[in-house]
Amino acid sequence: MSDAPLLDVRGLGISFLIGGGSVHATQDVSFAVQPGERVGIVGESGCGKTITGLSLLGLLPAATTRVVGQAMFEGENLVGLPLSRMRHVRGRKISMIFQEPMSALDPVFTIGQQIGETIRTHFKVDKKQARERAIEALASVGIPSPARVHDSYPHQLSGGMRQRAMIAIALVCEPRLLIADEPTTALDVTIQAQIIDLLLDLSARQGTALLFITHDLGVIAETCTRMITMYAGQVVEDAPVDSALVRPRHPYTSGLLRSLPRLSARGAMLPSIAGRVPTLRDMPTGCRFAERCAHRQEACAAPQAIEQEGAHQVRCWRQGELVLPGALTDREAAA
Amino acid sequence: MTAPIVSVDELRIRFPTQDRRETVKAVDGVSFDVMPGETFGIIGESGSGKSTLGRAVVCLLKPTEGQVRLGGIDPYSLPSAELRRRRRAFQIIFQDPNAALNPRMSVIDSIREPLDIIGEGSRDSRTRIAREMLERVGLRPEFGQRYPHELSGGQKQRINIARVLTVRPSVIVCDEVVAALDVSIRADILNLFAELQREFGLTYLFITHDLGVVSHVSSRIAVMYLGKFMEMGPADEIAERPLHPYTQALLSAEPIPLPSSMRATRRIILQGEIPSPTNPPSGCRFRTRCPHAQAVCASEMPAWREAAPGRFVACHFAGEATGHPIDPTTTQEATA
């Protein structure tokens, strides 16, 4: 693609300052999001996917974190962007929604006041116009009786309705990029299906790019076109979703996909990834996954670079020789 | 034929709302049997009453109407000392492994606590049992001296499993026990449950909203909606040939990690949300969200009937609506 990416993250690293020293939470994270593209970041708790999202909007506490590298968005580097500039980006150009709509919404303001705040920060409108626009936004996310919800407080809404209201706030200014951090994890599966449908529809209608952070591989498969796998603070694989699901190139991606219950006969042992993620304090210098990897060899003790092969970028020197199973059952893979 | 170890008969559990003006019908007429050694899965969305049902099975909630018989006996007919003695055989593990552990107790003290309460044997023998169970759930002995905040979610859930094992239960109600865990940890814990079942001959009631989990572990599944069972039967048949439109919608809503070319073409997206259990819809409770609802669904409550051997359903159009017409001659799966 010759078009410039909407978001171009290069060598992003986040450290936490702890007791006079510091630990690297993420290192050398690079990826790009094209305009309107839907990209998923997948990984287990603690792999650094949420803080990567937060760092893009400057939402990490400045006193205890240090962010290096760059994240170019519309010609500006979001890393180290002064607050006065960042204010024009947040909510207007890039929005974020979170897992727990109850803790992301302010309990003492009505939904309408919270949408109105966003609208009036970015546009010169009076109260009446802001109200109309807010009600319109609530209607566009499929909230029945939007005028009533406009004047409701968060606690008066169900979990699904709160998440819809969050999405309405996030999308009211038609941002170019929406960062969605586990937006459906707290919801029931039938409500999750509604929210996924809504996000896909809004993304298509407004041309909003999506950066979908989740541990749910099914959600990634249904929403995204590209999947970035993170492990212990690094990107280990970046590939088109369909290709990564059928033939992952990194043993960790493969391990995640194989541990899903649907692939094993009922009652059979589920394959799992033995061992645990190394702690931030004693991160191995070589491959971070090596200790848990069934394909480990001596050369894995050396630092691993992320390299391109075909449509995949993979942080594993054996990617060319390993043939790893993906998310298909044996029967599906044979077909 | 063996007798069921858990037998639930027309169970109803109601709570008054906070202002005491209305009644929440959390469980509204549910019947099922669980056989010894079986894993019985209960699936439903939040507000379906599945957790209330689980609590009633282990005598944490008293039925408003109907009965739960444990090992053939109605526990509420027993004198309280006898009930106390018997209820150790029926244990429950909850979703949030943090909330279930006392942050100020060391791991070994937490594991030993149920035995301390029962007052069985000497303190030393109780500690020894607790250590054995700690090891049995796959944790090294030094974990005994740690505190919950030093453990990961998966480790904490292992401790909760060890705790209930100390009293040698015969039935364990597992209420969303893997919902808070990462996928690979989830696989480990599900494997541990399976091993323990073989080793101790345990019976599980597996309550979850996760279809992938429930159909992997269960031999039979019940689908619950707004206080009632919609459908019940062998796990593989329910997954492959659902008879109730709600089951079908649940199956179709589950996001499946398959490439786009291999996913089912049409997804059923249910409109709206689960109605309030204080005032459930007339007739069939699912009718307000059912894509196949007709006039009769509002006027008549569908009967809970055995559509084929071992397959129960409550729907006027069972099978027809889901495209899996009932043929009583072909559905002959054993139920246990």
Walk me through the topology.
The complex is a heterodimer of chains A (about 325) and B (about 325).
Chain A: E1 7-18, E2 21-33, E3 38-42, H1 49-56, E4 65-73, E5 76-77, H2 83-89, E6 94-97, H3 101-104, H4 111-122, H5 127-140, H6 146-150, H7 159-171, E7 177-181, H8 189-206, E8 209-214, H9 217-223, E9 226-231, E10 234-240, H10 241-246, H11 251-258, E11 307-309, E12 312-314, H12 330-334
Parallel strand pairs in A: 3-8, 3-9, 6-7, 7-8
Antiparallel strand pairs in A: 1-2, 1-4, 4-5, 9-10, 10-12, 11-12
Chain B: E1 6-16, E2 23-34, E3 39-43, H1 50-57, E4 65-70, H2 80-87, E5 90-93, H3 107-118, H4 123-136, H5 153-165, E6 171-175, H6 183-200, E7 203-208, H7 211-217, E8 220-225, E9 228-234, H8 235-240, H9 245-253, H10 295-299, E10 305-308, E11 311-313
Parallel strand pairs in B: 3-7, 3-8, 5-6, 6-7
Antiparallel strand pairs in B: 1-2, 1-4, 8-9, 9-11, 10-11
For the largest interface, the chains and their residue counts are: A-B, 47 and 45 residues
Strand content of chain A: 15-25%
Order of helices and strands of chain B: EEEHEHEHHHEHEHEEHHHEE
Low-confidence stretches of chain A: none
First-residue to last-residue Cα separation of chain A: 32 Å
As an assembly, this protein is heterodimer
CATH fold type of the largest domain in chain A: Rossmann fold
Total tally of structural domains of chain B: 1
Helix-strand category of chain A: alpha/beta
* Overall tally of structural domains of chain A: 2
> Radius of gyration of chain A from the CA trace?
21 Å
Strand order of the largest sheet of chain B: 5-6-7-3-8-9-11-10
Q: Ends of chain B: how far apart?
A: 11 Å
